[in-house]
Design goal:
This protein has 557 residues and is mainly beta. The chain is built from eight helices and 30 strands. The strands form six sheets. The protein has a five-stranded mixed barrel. The chain has a five-stranded mixed barrel with strand order 10-11-12-14-13.
Length: 557
Protein backbone atom coordinates (compact mmCIF):
# COMPACT_ATOMS: atom_id res chain seq x y z
CA UNK A 1 0.00 0.00 0.00
CA UNK A 2 1.30 3.46 -0.91
CA UNK A 3 0.21 7.09 -0.68
CA UNK A 4 -0.35 9.23 -3.77
CA UNK A 5 -0.75 12.92 -2.91
CA UNK A 6 -1.92 11.91 0.58
CA UNK A 7 -4.46 9.50 -0.87
CA UNK A 8 -4.30 5.71 -0.52
CA UNK A 9 -2.94 3.65 -3.38
CA UNK A 10 -2.49 -0.06 -4.06
CA UNK A 11 0.47 -1.65 -5.88
CA UNK A 12 0.47 -5.31 -6.98
CA UNK A 13 3.36 -7.11 -5.26
CA UNK A 14 4.66 -8.61 -8.48
CA UNK A 15 5.47 -5.10 -9.76
CA UNK A 16 7.60 -4.12 -6.75
CA UNK A 17 11.34 -4.80 -6.50
CA UNK A 18 12.87 -6.49 -3.47
CA UNK A 19 14.67 -3.29 -2.52
CA UNK A 20 11.52 -1.36 -1.64
CA UNK A 21 10.81 -0.79 2.08
CA UNK A 22 8.22 0.86 4.28
CA UNK A 23 8.54 4.64 4.12
CA UNK A 24 10.48 4.56 0.88
CA UNK A 25 9.62 6.37 -2.35
CA UNK A 26 8.64 4.52 -5.53
CA UNK A 27 7.83 5.55 -9.09
CA UNK A 28 4.74 4.08 -10.65
CA UNK A 29 2.09 4.36 -13.36
CA UNK A 30 -1.55 4.94 -12.33
CA UNK A 31 -3.69 2.16 -13.81
CA UNK A 32 -7.04 2.97 -12.20
CA UNK A 33 -8.62 5.68 -10.09
CA UNK A 34 -11.71 5.25 -7.87
CA UNK A 35 -13.15 8.78 -7.26
CA UNK A 36 -15.69 7.50 -4.72
CA UNK A 37 -13.06 5.85 -2.52
CA UNK A 38 -10.37 8.45 -3.35
CA UNK A 39 -7.92 5.63 -4.10
CA UNK A 40 -5.53 4.56 -6.87
CA UNK A 41 -4.13 1.35 -8.32
CA UNK A 42 -0.55 1.65 -9.56
CA UNK A 43 2.07 -0.46 -11.29
CA UNK A 44 5.69 0.01 -10.15
CA UNK A 45 7.15 -2.18 -12.88
CA UNK A 46 10.45 -0.51 -13.86
CA UNK A 47 10.02 -1.64 -17.46
CA UNK A 48 6.49 -0.16 -17.72
CA UNK A 49 7.46 3.09 -15.97
CA UNK A 50 10.44 3.59 -18.29
CA UNK A 51 8.38 2.79 -21.39
CA UNK A 52 5.59 5.22 -20.45
CA UNK A 53 7.97 8.07 -19.55
CA UNK A 54 9.85 7.91 -22.83
CA UNK A 55 6.93 7.13 -25.14
CA UNK A 56 5.19 9.52 -27.51
CA UNK A 57 1.46 8.74 -27.60
CA UNK A 58 -0.02 7.95 -30.98
CA UNK A 59 -3.56 8.27 -32.27
CA UNK A 60 -5.94 5.32 -31.94
CA UNK A 61 -8.53 4.64 -34.64
CA UNK A 62 -11.89 3.18 -33.71
CA UNK A 63 -12.46 -0.30 -35.14
CA UNK A 64 -8.75 -1.12 -35.60
CA UNK A 65 -7.18 -4.21 -34.03
CA UNK A 66 -4.05 -3.66 -31.94
CA UNK A 67 -1.60 -5.81 -29.94
CA UNK A 68 -1.71 -5.21 -26.20
CA UNK A 69 -0.74 -6.57 -22.81
CA UNK A 70 -2.95 -6.90 -19.74
CA UNK A 71 -1.43 -4.96 -16.84
CA UNK A 72 -4.40 -5.07 -14.43
CA UNK A 73 -7.23 -7.58 -14.02
CA UNK A 74 -10.21 -6.97 -11.70
CA UNK A 75 -13.58 -8.66 -11.36
CA UNK A 76 -15.18 -6.06 -13.63
CA UNK A 77 -12.56 -5.00 -16.17
CA UNK A 78 -9.06 -5.33 -17.60
CA UNK A 79 -6.55 -2.52 -18.10
CA UNK A 80 -4.57 -3.06 -21.31
CA UNK A 81 -1.48 -1.20 -22.48
CA UNK A 82 -0.85 -0.89 -26.23
CA UNK A 83 2.93 -0.61 -26.83
CA UNK A 84 2.57 0.07 -30.54
CA UNK A 85 0.60 3.28 -29.86
CA UNK A 86 3.02 4.89 -27.45
CA UNK A 87 2.00 2.74 -24.49
CA UNK A 88 -1.56 4.08 -24.40
CA UNK A 89 -3.94 2.49 -21.90
CA UNK A 90 -7.51 1.31 -22.32
CA UNK A 91 -10.30 -0.52 -20.49
CA UNK A 92 -11.96 -3.81 -21.43
CA UNK A 93 -15.27 -4.34 -19.62
CA UNK A 94 -15.95 -7.95 -18.79
CA UNK A 95 -19.72 -7.51 -18.82
CA UNK A 96 -21.99 -5.44 -21.01
CA UNK A 97 -24.83 -5.70 -18.50
CA UNK A 98 -25.52 -7.39 -15.16
CA UNK A 99 -26.76 -10.65 -16.66
CA UNK A 100 -23.64 -11.34 -18.73
CA UNK A 101 -21.27 -14.11 -17.59
CA UNK A 102 -18.16 -14.43 -19.76
CA UNK A 103 -16.49 -17.75 -19.01
CA UNK A 104 -14.02 -17.11 -21.84
CA UNK A 105 -12.31 -14.43 -19.74
CA UNK A 106 -11.46 -16.90 -16.96
CA UNK A 107 -8.45 -18.04 -18.98
CA UNK A 108 -7.12 -14.49 -19.39
CA UNK A 109 -4.78 -13.21 -16.69
CA UNK A 110 -2.53 -10.27 -15.93
CA UNK A 111 0.54 -10.15 -18.14
CA UNK A 112 -1.01 -11.99 -21.10
CA UNK A 113 -0.40 -10.70 -24.60
CA UNK A 114 -3.79 -10.11 -26.28
CA UNK A 115 -5.34 -8.60 -29.38
CA UNK A 116 -7.85 -5.80 -28.77
CA UNK A 117 -10.31 -3.87 -30.94
CA UNK A 118 -10.68 -0.13 -30.30
CA UNK A 119 -14.33 0.69 -29.57
CA UNK A 120 -13.96 4.29 -28.48
CA UNK A 121 -11.00 6.65 -28.60
CA UNK A 122 -12.28 10.17 -28.00
CA UNK A 123 -10.29 13.00 -26.56
CA UNK A 124 -10.92 13.55 -22.86
CA UNK A 125 -12.62 10.18 -22.37
CA UNK A 126 -11.26 6.76 -21.35
CA UNK A 127 -10.24 4.49 -24.21
CA UNK A 128 -12.65 1.55 -24.47
CA UNK A 129 -11.41 -1.73 -25.93
CA UNK A 130 -12.75 -5.21 -26.60
CA UNK A 131 -10.73 -8.38 -26.49
CA UNK A 132 -10.45 -10.24 -29.78
CA UNK A 133 -10.55 -13.86 -28.65
CA UNK A 134 -10.31 -16.88 -30.98
CA UNK A 135 -13.61 -18.58 -31.87
CA UNK A 136 -14.31 -21.86 -30.12
CA UNK A 137 -17.16 -24.33 -30.18
CA UNK A 138 -16.67 -25.28 -26.56
CA UNK A 139 -19.16 -24.08 -23.98
CA UNK A 140 -18.33 -20.72 -22.45
CA UNK A 141 -15.70 -19.70 -25.02
CA UNK A 142 -17.73 -17.12 -26.98
CA UNK A 143 -16.41 -13.55 -26.53
CA UNK A 144 -18.34 -10.45 -25.39
CA UNK A 145 -21.43 -12.29 -24.21
CA UNK A 146 -22.25 -14.11 -27.44
CA UNK A 147 -24.01 -17.39 -26.83
CA UNK A 148 -22.53 -20.52 -28.34
CA UNK A 149 -23.92 -21.46 -31.71
CA UNK A 150 -26.99 -23.64 -31.65
CA UNK A 151 -26.95 -27.06 -33.24
CA UNK A 152 -30.04 -25.96 -35.13
CA UNK A 153 -29.70 -23.83 -38.23
CA UNK A 154 -29.78 -20.15 -37.28
CA UNK A 155 -32.15 -17.61 -38.88
CA UNK A 156 -30.58 -14.32 -39.96
CA UNK A 157 -32.12 -10.93 -40.70
CA UNK A 158 -31.18 -11.24 -44.36
CA UNK A 159 -33.23 -14.42 -44.70
CA UNK A 160 -36.55 -13.24 -43.29
CA UNK A 161 -39.26 -11.39 -45.18
CA UNK A 162 -42.23 -9.31 -44.07
CA UNK A 163 -45.46 -11.13 -44.82
CA UNK A 164 -44.04 -14.62 -44.28
CA UNK A 165 -45.20 -17.03 -41.55
CA UNK A 166 -42.55 -18.35 -39.12
CA UNK A 167 -42.37 -20.61 -36.09
CA UNK A 168 -41.46 -18.45 -33.13
CA UNK A 169 -40.78 -19.28 -29.48
CA UNK A 170 -42.39 -17.46 -26.56
CA UNK A 171 -39.68 -16.05 -24.30
CA UNK A 172 -42.02 -14.49 -21.75
CA UNK A 173 -45.51 -13.00 -21.47
CA UNK A 174 -45.98 -9.40 -20.38
CA UNK A 175 -49.26 -7.63 -19.64
CA UNK A 176 -49.55 -6.14 -23.14
CA UNK A 177 -47.30 -8.27 -25.33
CA UNK A 178 -45.62 -11.60 -25.87
CA UNK A 179 -41.85 -11.39 -26.15
CA UNK A 180 -40.81 -13.95 -28.74
CA UNK A 181 -37.72 -15.15 -30.55
CA UNK A 182 -37.09 -16.32 -34.08
CA UNK A 183 -34.02 -18.49 -34.36
CA UNK A 184 -31.10 -17.61 -32.08
CA UNK A 185 -30.75 -13.87 -32.53
CA UNK A 186 -33.94 -12.33 -33.88
CA UNK A 187 -36.11 -11.07 -31.06
CA UNK A 188 -39.63 -9.78 -31.50
CA UNK A 189 -42.99 -9.27 -29.93
CA UNK A 190 -46.65 -10.00 -30.49
CA UNK A 191 -48.70 -7.01 -29.36
CA UNK A 192 -51.87 -7.88 -27.46
CA UNK A 193 -54.00 -6.45 -30.28
CA UNK A 194 -52.34 -8.86 -32.75
CA UNK A 195 -53.18 -12.11 -30.92
CA UNK A 196 -56.81 -12.76 -31.84
CA UNK A 197 -59.63 -11.33 -33.95
CA UNK A 198 -62.29 -12.24 -31.38
CA UNK A 199 -61.07 -11.51 -27.84
CA UNK A 200 -63.21 -12.59 -24.93
CA UNK A 201 -64.75 -9.62 -23.14
CA UNK A 202 -63.18 -8.97 -19.75
CA UNK A 203 -60.23 -11.36 -20.13
CA UNK A 204 -56.72 -11.17 -21.59
CA UNK A 205 -55.69 -13.36 -24.57
CA UNK A 206 -52.10 -13.40 -23.28
CA UNK A 207 -53.05 -15.68 -20.37
CA UNK A 208 -53.15 -18.74 -22.66
CA UNK A 209 -49.41 -18.55 -23.44
CA UNK A 210 -46.38 -19.59 -21.39
CA UNK A 211 -42.62 -19.65 -21.70
CA UNK A 212 -41.34 -22.05 -24.35
CA UNK A 213 -44.52 -22.26 -26.43
CA UNK A 214 -43.85 -22.56 -30.17
CA UNK A 215 -46.43 -20.74 -32.28
CA UNK A 216 -47.00 -19.83 -35.92
CA UNK A 217 -46.94 -16.08 -36.57
CA UNK A 218 -46.67 -13.72 -39.51
CA UNK A 219 -43.94 -11.08 -39.58
CA UNK A 220 -45.67 -7.72 -40.20
CA UNK A 221 -42.81 -5.29 -39.64
CA UNK A 222 -39.95 -4.07 -37.48
CA UNK A 223 -39.57 -1.40 -34.86
CA UNK A 224 -36.58 0.17 -33.14
CA UNK A 225 -36.40 -0.50 -29.42
CA UNK A 226 -33.99 1.37 -27.17
CA UNK A 227 -32.38 -0.69 -24.48
CA UNK A 228 -30.81 0.57 -21.29
CA UNK A 229 -29.15 -2.67 -20.21
CA UNK A 230 -25.75 -1.34 -21.23
CA UNK A 231 -23.64 1.34 -19.61
CA UNK A 232 -23.78 4.65 -21.53
CA UNK A 233 -19.98 4.64 -21.87
CA UNK A 234 -20.01 1.30 -23.66
CA UNK A 235 -23.18 1.59 -25.75
CA UNK A 236 -24.03 5.15 -26.76
CA UNK A 237 -27.39 5.66 -28.52
CA UNK A 238 -27.86 1.90 -28.74
CA UNK A 239 -31.00 0.64 -30.49
CA UNK A 240 -31.95 -2.78 -31.75
CA UNK A 241 -34.51 -3.94 -34.27
CA UNK A 242 -37.43 -5.93 -32.92
CA UNK A 243 -39.76 -7.93 -35.14
CA UNK A 244 -43.50 -7.28 -35.04
CA UNK A 245 -45.52 -10.50 -35.39
CA UNK A 246 -49.24 -11.25 -35.62
CA UNK A 247 -51.21 -14.32 -34.56
CA UNK A 248 -54.58 -13.09 -35.80
CA UNK A 249 -56.33 -15.57 -38.05
CA UNK A 250 -57.39 -12.87 -40.49
CA UNK A 251 -53.75 -11.77 -40.86
CA UNK A 252 -52.36 -15.30 -41.19
CA UNK A 253 -54.87 -16.18 -43.92
CA UNK A 254 -54.57 -12.89 -45.77
CA UNK A 255 -52.37 -12.67 -48.83
CA UNK A 256 -51.94 -8.92 -48.42
CA UNK A 257 -48.89 -7.56 -46.63
CA UNK A 258 -49.82 -5.19 -43.81
CA UNK A 259 -46.50 -3.68 -42.82
CA UNK A 260 -46.00 -1.79 -39.56
CA UNK A 261 -43.40 0.96 -39.65
CA UNK A 262 -42.13 2.81 -36.62
CA UNK A 263 -42.32 6.27 -38.19
CA UNK A 264 -45.90 5.86 -39.43
CA UNK A 265 -47.69 5.41 -36.09
CA UNK A 266 -49.07 8.97 -36.07
CA UNK A 267 -50.39 8.60 -39.62
CA UNK A 268 -51.86 5.21 -38.69
CA UNK A 269 -53.83 6.79 -35.84
CA UNK A 270 -55.12 9.62 -38.07
CA UNK A 271 -56.14 7.22 -40.81
CA UNK A 272 -57.94 4.98 -38.33
CA UNK A 273 -59.80 7.91 -36.71
CA UNK A 274 -60.98 9.10 -40.12
CA UNK A 275 -62.80 5.78 -40.64
CA UNK A 276 -64.66 5.89 -37.32
CA UNK A 277 -68.32 6.84 -36.94
CA UNK A 278 -69.83 8.12 -33.70
CA UNK A 279 -71.68 5.26 -32.04
CA UNK A 280 -69.49 2.59 -33.68
CA UNK A 281 -68.38 -0.38 -31.56
CA UNK A 282 -64.60 -0.95 -31.25
CA UNK A 283 -62.60 -3.48 -29.24
CA UNK A 284 -59.36 -2.84 -27.40
CA UNK A 285 -57.33 -3.79 -24.34
CA UNK A 286 -56.72 -1.81 -21.15
CA UNK A 287 -53.24 -0.27 -21.22
CA UNK A 288 -53.38 1.66 -17.94
CA UNK A 289 -55.66 3.30 -15.40
CA UNK A 290 -54.44 6.72 -14.29
CA UNK A 291 -55.29 9.11 -11.48
CA UNK A 292 -56.80 11.72 -13.80
CA UNK A 293 -59.98 9.75 -14.42
CA UNK A 294 -58.95 7.89 -17.59
CA UNK A 295 -58.79 4.27 -18.66
CA UNK A 296 -56.35 4.07 -21.60
CA UNK A 297 -57.20 1.41 -24.18
CA UNK A 298 -54.96 -0.06 -26.92
CA UNK A 299 -56.80 -0.45 -30.22
CA UNK A 300 -53.69 -1.40 -32.21
CA UNK A 301 -49.92 -1.00 -31.67
CA UNK A 302 -50.15 2.59 -32.90
CA UNK A 303 -53.70 3.59 -31.91
CA UNK A 304 -55.19 4.10 -28.47
CA UNK A 305 -58.45 5.41 -27.03
CA UNK A 306 -59.38 6.82 -23.65
CA UNK A 307 -62.40 6.15 -21.44
CA UNK A 308 -63.60 8.81 -18.97
CA UNK A 309 -64.61 7.29 -15.64
CA UNK A 310 -68.20 8.62 -15.63
CA UNK A 311 -68.79 6.70 -18.87
CA UNK A 312 -67.77 3.34 -17.40
CA UNK A 313 -71.12 2.36 -15.82
CA UNK A 314 -74.81 3.17 -15.54
CA UNK A 315 -74.99 3.17 -11.74
CA UNK A 316 -73.44 5.61 -9.30
CA UNK A 317 -71.99 2.82 -7.13
CA UNK A 318 -70.09 1.27 -10.05
CA UNK A 319 -68.75 4.66 -11.15
CA UNK A 320 -67.42 5.46 -7.68
CA UNK A 321 -65.46 2.16 -7.69
CA UNK A 322 -64.38 2.40 -11.32
CA UNK A 323 -60.63 1.77 -10.77
CA UNK A 324 -61.18 -1.69 -9.26
CA UNK A 325 -63.14 -2.85 -12.33
CA UNK A 326 -60.28 -2.59 -14.82
CA UNK A 327 -57.03 -4.57 -15.09
CA UNK A 328 -54.19 -4.16 -17.57
CA UNK A 329 -54.70 -6.39 -20.62
CA UNK A 330 -58.45 -6.75 -20.11
CA UNK A 331 -60.48 -6.85 -23.35
CA UNK A 332 -63.11 -4.11 -23.69
CA UNK A 333 -65.75 -3.39 -26.31
CA UNK A 334 -66.72 0.28 -26.23
CA UNK A 335 -68.71 2.82 -28.21
CA UNK A 336 -67.04 5.71 -30.03
CA UNK A 337 -68.12 8.82 -28.13
CA UNK A 338 -65.98 11.58 -29.63
CA UNK A 339 -63.17 11.90 -32.19
CA UNK A 340 -62.23 15.57 -31.90
CA UNK A 341 -58.58 16.71 -32.10
CA UNK A 342 -57.45 13.31 -33.43
CA UNK A 343 -58.28 11.62 -30.12
CA UNK A 344 -60.67 8.75 -29.62
CA UNK A 345 -63.00 9.01 -26.62
CA UNK A 346 -65.12 5.94 -25.95
CA UNK A 347 -68.00 5.02 -23.68
CA UNK A 348 -69.35 1.85 -22.07
CA UNK A 349 -72.86 3.29 -21.65
CA UNK A 350 -73.75 4.16 -25.23
CA UNK A 351 -73.29 6.94 -27.77
CA UNK A 352 -73.88 10.66 -27.32
CA UNK A 353 -77.36 10.98 -28.87
CA UNK A 354 -80.54 12.82 -27.95
CA UNK A 355 -82.39 10.87 -25.26
CA UNK A 356 -79.36 8.91 -24.03
CA UNK A 357 -78.72 8.95 -20.28
CA UNK A 358 -75.40 9.42 -18.46
CA UNK A 359 -73.88 10.25 -15.12
CA UNK A 360 -72.16 13.63 -15.22
CA UNK A 361 -69.91 15.63 -12.94
CA UNK A 362 -71.19 18.98 -11.62
CA UNK A 363 -68.59 21.63 -12.49
CA UNK A 364 -70.41 24.76 -11.37
CA UNK A 365 -73.69 26.66 -11.18
CA UNK A 366 -74.62 29.81 -13.10
CA UNK A 367 -77.41 31.98 -11.65
CA UNK A 368 -80.09 32.66 -14.18
CA UNK A 369 -78.70 30.03 -16.57
CA UNK A 370 -78.37 26.60 -14.97
CA UNK A 371 -75.78 23.95 -14.04
CA UNK A 372 -72.55 23.17 -15.91
CA UNK A 373 -72.05 19.41 -16.28
CA UNK A 374 -69.09 17.36 -17.57
CA UNK A 375 -69.91 14.17 -19.48
CA UNK A 376 -66.39 13.31 -20.64
CA UNK A 377 -62.94 14.85 -20.92
CA UNK A 378 -64.08 17.06 -23.81
CA UNK A 379 -67.89 17.05 -23.60
CA UNK A 380 -69.41 19.71 -21.38
CA UNK A 381 -73.06 20.69 -21.31
CA UNK A 382 -75.55 22.98 -19.62
CA UNK A 383 -78.67 21.88 -17.77
CA UNK A 384 -80.92 25.00 -17.98
CA UNK A 385 -82.99 26.03 -14.96
CA UNK A 386 -86.13 24.74 -16.68
CA UNK A 387 -84.53 21.27 -17.09
CA UNK A 388 -83.41 20.75 -13.49
CA UNK A 389 -86.71 19.56 -12.01
CA UNK A 390 -90.27 18.66 -12.97
CA UNK A 391 -91.45 20.88 -10.16
CA UNK A 392 -89.85 24.32 -10.28
CA UNK A 393 -88.48 25.62 -7.00
CA UNK A 394 -87.34 29.04 -5.79
CA UNK A 395 -83.72 27.86 -5.40
CA UNK A 396 -83.18 25.30 -8.16
CA UNK A 397 -79.34 25.41 -7.91
CA UNK A 398 -79.10 24.70 -4.20
CA UNK A 399 -78.86 20.90 -4.48
CA UNK A 400 -76.05 20.89 -7.07
CA UNK A 401 -72.73 20.79 -5.21
CA UNK A 402 -69.55 21.01 -7.26
CA UNK A 403 -67.77 17.72 -8.20
CA UNK A 404 -70.78 15.57 -7.33
CA UNK A 405 -72.33 13.02 -9.68
CA UNK A 406 -75.81 13.59 -11.11
CA UNK A 407 -77.76 11.61 -13.65
CA UNK A 408 -78.83 13.45 -16.76
CA UNK A 409 -80.34 12.97 -20.20
CA UNK A 410 -79.27 14.55 -23.49
CA UNK A 411 -81.89 17.02 -24.72
CA UNK A 412 -79.98 18.61 -27.57
CA UNK A 413 -76.62 17.67 -29.08
CA UNK A 414 -74.57 19.65 -31.56
CA UNK A 415 -71.04 20.72 -32.39
CA UNK A 416 -71.31 23.91 -30.36
CA UNK A 417 -74.13 23.16 -27.93
CA UNK A 418 -74.99 20.34 -25.56
CA UNK A 419 -78.21 20.71 -23.56
CA UNK A 420 -78.81 18.29 -20.69
CA UNK A 421 -81.67 17.62 -18.30
CA UNK A 422 -81.91 16.26 -14.76
CA UNK A 423 -85.71 16.01 -14.83
CA UNK A 424 -86.98 12.72 -13.43
CA UNK A 425 -89.51 12.55 -16.26
CA UNK A 426 -86.63 12.33 -18.75
CA UNK A 427 -84.21 10.00 -16.97
CA UNK A 428 -86.26 7.60 -14.81
CA UNK A 429 -88.66 4.99 -16.14
CA UNK A 430 -89.58 4.08 -12.53
CA UNK A 431 -90.62 7.67 -11.91
CA UNK A 432 -92.78 7.67 -15.03
CA UNK A 433 -94.57 4.48 -13.92
CA UNK A 434 -95.14 5.92 -10.45
CA UNK A 435 -96.61 9.15 -11.84
CA UNK A 436 -98.76 7.37 -14.38
CA UNK A 437 -101.20 9.63 -16.18
CA UNK A 438 -100.97 12.40 -13.63
CA UNK A 439 -100.06 15.77 -15.06
CA UNK A 440 -96.53 17.06 -14.46
CA UNK A 441 -96.64 20.30 -12.47
CA UNK A 442 -94.18 22.05 -14.78
CA UNK A 443 -94.20 20.20 -18.12
CA UNK A 444 -91.42 20.43 -20.68
CA UNK A 445 -91.80 23.36 -23.07
CA UNK A 446 -89.72 22.62 -26.18
CA UNK A 447 -91.32 24.92 -28.77
CA UNK A 448 -93.68 27.92 -28.54
CA UNK A 449 -96.58 25.81 -29.82
CA UNK A 450 -96.39 23.80 -26.58
CA UNK A 451 -97.83 26.91 -24.92
CA UNK A 452 -101.52 27.72 -24.88
CA UNK A 453 -102.70 31.30 -25.22
CA UNK A 454 -104.52 32.22 -22.04
CA UNK A 455 -102.67 29.65 -19.95
CA UNK A 456 -100.58 30.26 -16.83
CA UNK A 457 -97.04 28.90 -16.70
CA UNK A 458 -93.99 29.09 -14.46
CA UNK A 459 -90.57 30.24 -15.60
CA UNK A 460 -87.29 31.77 -14.50
CA UNK A 461 -86.10 35.30 -15.12
CA UNK A 462 -83.37 35.12 -17.78
CA UNK A 463 -82.62 38.81 -18.32
CA UNK A 464 -84.23 42.23 -18.28
CA UNK A 465 -83.89 45.49 -20.11
CA UNK A 466 -85.07 48.96 -19.19
CA UNK A 467 -86.41 49.41 -22.73
CA UNK A 468 -87.79 45.93 -23.51
CA UNK A 469 -88.88 44.60 -20.11
CA UNK A 470 -88.28 41.18 -18.55
CA UNK A 471 -87.38 38.00 -20.47
CA UNK A 472 -88.64 34.77 -18.94
CA UNK A 473 -87.25 31.31 -19.74
CA UNK A 474 -90.14 28.85 -20.13
CA UNK A 475 -88.04 26.07 -21.73
CA UNK A 476 -84.49 25.55 -22.90
CA UNK A 477 -85.44 26.96 -26.31
CA UNK A 478 -88.48 29.06 -25.41
CA UNK A 479 -88.14 32.58 -24.00
CA UNK A 480 -91.01 35.00 -23.56
CA UNK A 481 -91.03 38.75 -23.07
CA UNK A 482 -93.01 40.75 -20.55
CA UNK A 483 -93.32 44.41 -21.50
CA UNK A 484 -93.22 47.07 -18.79
CA UNK A 485 -96.94 47.72 -19.22
CA UNK A 486 -97.72 44.04 -18.55
CA UNK A 487 -95.68 43.66 -15.38
CA UNK A 488 -98.36 44.86 -12.98
CA UNK A 489 -101.84 46.30 -12.81
CA UNK A 490 -100.25 49.26 -11.04
CA UNK A 491 -97.37 51.50 -12.00
CA UNK A 492 -93.96 50.20 -10.89
CA UNK A 493 -91.30 52.85 -10.51
CA UNK A 494 -88.26 50.74 -9.49
CA UNK A 495 -89.06 47.31 -10.90
CA UNK A 496 -85.60 45.83 -11.76
CA UNK A 497 -84.66 44.72 -8.19
CA UNK A 498 -87.98 42.87 -8.06
CA UNK A 499 -86.89 40.52 -10.87
CA UNK A 500 -83.36 39.27 -10.22
CA UNK A 501 -81.84 36.67 -12.55
CA UNK A 502 -83.10 33.17 -11.81
CA UNK A 503 -86.22 34.24 -9.93
CA UNK A 504 -89.20 31.92 -10.26
CA UNK A 505 -92.29 33.73 -11.60
CA UNK A 506 -95.74 32.90 -12.96
CA UNK A 507 -96.81 34.34 -16.30
CA UNK A 508 -99.92 34.54 -18.43
CA UNK A 509 -99.59 33.78 -22.16
CA UNK A 510 -100.82 36.71 -24.25
CA UNK A 511 -99.54 35.53 -27.62
CA UNK A 512 -97.17 32.94 -29.11
CA UNK A 513 -96.82 34.37 -32.64
CA UNK A 514 -94.70 35.98 -33.95
CA UNK A 515 -93.12 36.23 -30.49
CA UNK A 516 -94.07 34.86 -27.12
CA UNK A 517 -95.62 37.75 -25.21
CA UNK A 518 -96.30 37.38 -21.49
CA UNK A 519 -98.10 39.17 -18.74
CA UNK A 520 -97.54 39.15 -15.00
CA UNK A 521 -100.58 41.24 -14.13
CA UNK A 522 -102.64 39.88 -11.27
CA UNK A 523 -105.80 40.34 -13.27
CA UNK A 524 -104.45 38.22 -16.15
CA UNK A 525 -103.15 35.54 -13.81
CA UNK A 526 -106.51 35.39 -12.08
CA UNK A 527 -108.22 34.94 -15.43
CA UNK A 528 -105.80 32.22 -16.44
CA UNK A 529 -106.19 30.33 -13.15
CA UNK A 530 -109.97 30.25 -13.53
CA UNK A 531 -109.63 28.93 -17.08
CA UNK A 532 -107.36 26.10 -15.97
CA UNK A 533 -109.73 25.03 -13.20
CA UNK A 534 -112.67 25.04 -15.60
CA UNK A 535 -110.79 22.89 -18.12
CA UNK A 536 -109.90 20.41 -15.38
CA UNK A 537 -113.58 20.04 -14.60
CA UNK A 538 -113.35 21.16 -11.01
CA UNK A 539 -115.25 23.91 -9.30
CA UNK A 540 -112.71 26.51 -8.45
CA UNK A 541 -113.83 28.55 -5.52
CA UNK A 542 -113.05 32.23 -5.52
CA UNK A 543 -111.12 31.83 -2.29
CA UNK A 544 -108.77 29.17 -3.83
CA UNK A 545 -107.85 31.36 -6.77
CA UNK A 546 -107.41 34.38 -4.49
CA UNK A 547 -105.10 32.40 -2.17
CA UNK A 548 -102.86 31.47 -5.15
CA UNK A 549 -102.72 35.09 -6.25
CA UNK A 550 -101.97 36.24 -2.69
CA UNK A 551 -98.93 33.95 -2.68
CA UNK A 552 -97.70 35.52 -5.91
CA UNK A 553 -98.16 39.02 -4.47
CA UNK A 554 -96.18 38.10 -1.35
CA UNK A 555 -93.30 36.77 -3.46
CA UNK A 556 -93.26 39.77 -5.74
CA UNK A 557 -93.73 42.61 -3.27
Amino acid sequence: MVKVENRPGFVPLDTLSSQEHVGGTVRGVILDHDPAAHSYVLSCSAELVAAVEGAKKKRLAEGEEENGRIVLATEEFFVVVIPGKGHRFGYVHKRQHLNDHFKAYKSVKCGDEVKVVVHRAKKGKPVLLALSLPDSTEEGSAPQGEKRKSKEEDVKFDHIKIGEVYSITVRNAKALQLNVQLGRKIKGRVHITEITDTPEEGSSPINQFKHGDIIQAKLIGFRHSKTFRYLPITRTNFVMSVGEFSLRKSVLESTKTREIKEDEKVDEAKDYISTLVLGQQITGFVRSVDHNGFVWICISPGVEARLWYTLTATTKEDIEGWKERFTVGQAITATVFNTKDNRIDVSLVGPLTVGSKFWALVKGTMPGIGVKLQLSARDWGIAPLTELNDHYTKEPLAKFAEDTLVQCAVVESGDKRLVLSTRKSRISQRWKKAVGNRKVINPVISVPTDLEVGGVYSGYVKSHSAAAGVFISLGHNVVGRTLLKNMSDNYLKNWEPMFPLGKLVKVYILNIEPKVELSMKISDLKKGQKKEREEEGSEAGEEDVQKCLDDILLERY
